[in-house]
Amino acid sequence: MKVHTIILAAGSGSRMQSLKAKSLQKVAGMTMIERIIKTAKEISDQITLVVGYDKEGIIEHAKKLGDFNYVEQPSPIGTGDAVKQAIPYISDDEKVVVLYGDVPLIKVDTLKNLISSSEEGFSILTSFPDDPYGYGRVIKNIDHNATSIVEQKDANDDQKNIKEIFTGNLCISGKILKESINDIKNNNAANEYYLTDLVSINSKKEIKINTYSVDINEVLGANSKKELELIENTNRNMQAKDLQEKGVTIVDSNRIDIRGNVSVGKDCYIDVNVILEGDIVLGDGVEIGPNSYIKNTKVGSNTNIKAFSYIESAEIGSMCNIGPFARIREGSEIGDEAKVGNFVETKKAKLGKGAKASHLTYLGDTEIGNDANIGAGTITCNYDGKNKYVTKIGNNAFIGSNSALVAPVEIGDGSFVAAGSTITKDVPENSLGVGRSKQSNIKDWSKDKK
């Protein structure tokens, strides 16, 4: 059976004190709506977003993530009314999952289990928080099926003692939803249409409503910047715990940010204040020093990334030494056993096996052979103000300190470039390239200056 997910993202979140919609606030570098959309795409054949406040902002943002349906809730008069706006897109033979744009940490496996538990037509996602105060309690019959949701303000003393709460997320057959959505009434103090009423409405029709329970941390929502911080901290702890269970040593799980998908080998070590963003692959024995930032990068086994290194959209081989204070930019490929040292910047640079650039160097649009050595202060001059050109440095070549290689230019295998040279022509194999003025000494010159 196909799955159709409705994401409720119409709320303004006035307590956020923001010009943007609540679901456009970021958690770990990614908007909450983007997080929940990416999760929903893993289990959905179709997605419908219910928008309202800042609808243009949400739609513009969501269009970058895929093709979805959009419906507007004209007035914020309850979650039941919000879901009702999506009914024209719902088919009888679909399973409908309801998610929230400001509840970003729910896991794909949780949703798969929720869907599986709805085989009889209706299942709700519940949790057992340490303190259930403020949440709607799940009332069950002797068969352990849900019969209603009682809000905190309406609960009697016995019902307040119930620990199981409704998270707001559910899975229901399209047919059942379409048949019961109009039965939701707004005869309450807020004059709103509550989606929770679907439970009691369908229970009275003798529809069995199953429950699937999840850790409360997955279903935390954010209505204020303080609650956003709580979700940020929760996400950090969840991600760190996941890596630790895979064998990663994390010096302090409160001082690491994981903002994407991280695949790890055995015996990795991550020091404090490290940010891992996007798609990251770490081989066995990778060590990452403090205050480093790595994004969309693959790192080979036994590579050591020292403190304050910045790496983005790169591929680093095994047994490399990176940093400290290295900047490896997009398109860089660092070969096995290579070294990129302090204050070295690379962009679209390929370093062969064992190549070294140890200090104070810029390597842009550069191909460097195996075991080549790049001296301090070297610059590959790849840009003439209009176009960019490639510099090629052969195997076992040696570039002296403070050299400028003006692209396009090629340094042959085994060649040397004398320190302080400006090289504008190719240097053949096993040759010495010198591009500097001849030194002349003026005897007794300094005596005239005294």
UniProtKB/TrEMBL annotation:
Q: Say yes or no: keyword Acyltransferase present.
A: yes
What subunit structure does UniProt give? Homotrimer.
> So what family is this one in?
In the N-terminal section; belongs to the N-acetylglucosamine-1-phosphate uridyltransferase family. In the C-terminal section; belongs to the transferase hexapeptide repeat family.
Query: Which Pfam family is one of this chain's hits?
Result: Hexapep
Using the UniProt annotation, give all residue ranges assigned to the region (Pyrophosphorylase). 1-225
What residue spans carry the region label Linker?
226-246
Residues where Mg(2+) binds: D102, N223
Q: Name one GO biological process term.
A: cell wall organization
Binding, UDP-N-acetyl-alpha-D-glucosamine = 8-11, 22, 73, 78-79, 100-102, 136, 151, 223, 329, 347, 362, 373
Q: Which organism is it from?
A: SAR86 cluster bacterium SAR86B
Catalytic residues in the record? H359 (proton acceptor)
* NCBIfam families registered for this protein in UniProt: glmU (TIGR01173)
Is Repeat one of the keywords?
yes
Described by its record, this protein's role is as follows: Catalyzes the last two sequential reactions in the de novo biosynthetic pathway for UDP-N-acetylglucosamine (UDP-GlcNAc). The C-terminal domain catalyzes the transfer of acetyl group from acetyl coenzyme A to glucosamine-1-phosphate (GlcN-1-P) to produce N-acetylglucosamine-1-phosphate (GlcNAc-1-P), which is converted into UDP-GlcNAc by the transfer of uridine 5-monophosphate (from uridine 5-triphosphate), a reaction catalyzed by the N-terminal domain.
Q: Where in the cell is it found?
A: Cytoplasm
Q: Please give the GO cellular component terms listed in this UniProt entry.
A: cytoplasm; membrane
Q: What cofactor is needed?
A: Mg(2+)
The name of this protein is: Bifunctional protein GlmU
Region (N-acetyltransferase) location? 247-450
Q: What is this enzyme's catalytic activity, as reactions?
A: N-acetyl-alpha-D-glucosamine 1-phosphate + UTP + H(+) = UDP-N-acetyl-alpha-D-glucosamine + diphosphate; alpha-D-glucosamine 1-phosphate + acetyl-CoA = N-acetyl-alpha-D-glucosamine 1-phosphate + CoA + H(+)
Identify the keywords attached in UniProt to this record, alphabetized: Acyltransferase, Cell shape, Cell wall biogenesis/degradation, Cytoplasm, Magnesium, Metal-binding, Multifunctional enzyme, Nucleotidyltransferase, Peptidoglycan synthesis, Repeat, Transferase
Q: What GO MF annotations does this protein's record show?
A: glucosamine-1-phosphate N-acetyltransferase activity; magnesium ion binding; UDP-N-acetylglucosamine diphosphorylase activity
What lineage does UniProt assign to this protein's organism? Bacteria, Pseudomonadati, Pseudomonadota, Gammaproteobacteria, SAR86 cluster
Mannose-1-phosphate guanyltransferase C-terminal domain location is: 258-344
EC number(s) from the headed UniProt entry: 2.7.7.23, 2.3.1.157
